[in-house]
Task: structure prediction
Amino acid sequence: MPPTVLAAPANPEAVTAPSTQTPRNAPTTPPDPKRVPNNATAIDATDAPIFRRHAPDTGTNPLDRPHALLQAGRFDEAEQAYRAIVHTDPHNPDALTALGLLAARRGEMERAAALYGRALIADPRHGPALAGLTGLQGEHEAIGESRLKALLTGDPGNAALHFALGNLLAGQQRWGEAQQAFFAAHSAAPDNPDALYNLAVALDRLHRPPLAARYYRLALDAAHERPAGFDTRLAQARLEALAPTAPGAATP
Result:
């Protein structure tokens, strides 16, 4: 499934009016994508963070190859590799979650939900499975804001949980809180294009055109390095619409 990305506002006049509301955690300067730590947790190109590694530390991990295929967009090969893992380890939450993501990409939402559910039976705190399930249409109520926040209390650096919470809050038009959640997801996953894009949309909805433009640009730059779930053409159009009201914002 492509990441749960938000719809950028289509009407510039609807979102560029001055506002006195400043999100408490809104960043004032864009991050430098060149300074992303090599070990940063990242929301995966297809929807979830790099999967937790449950395999024993034997020097090699069977999840490495399918995950590399997934990030490279070689979805058929990745699915075959994840299926092979599940065949020998039916309760592997990482492989089950990945198969859920791939099923959702094909529009098989019921199968995706079942796979996420199996992953959560194996590991009730599995952030990627929770994020994937939250992203399915109609599943926001099933996960619940309180549950996501409770899980974040014990795992505050989990990018997937912050991303899922941001999507839930955005769906309720709670843009200030959604912005904070997306910024937290971006902080945990600095090079992820979808976290950057959703942050840009939230800032856009909060009438913060200079910051929104900066993060649209950073999202587009990040999308050159790894697959993204948002439509880059629409993001570019929105950036160009905001540019006149945000001088210099397109340049990090």
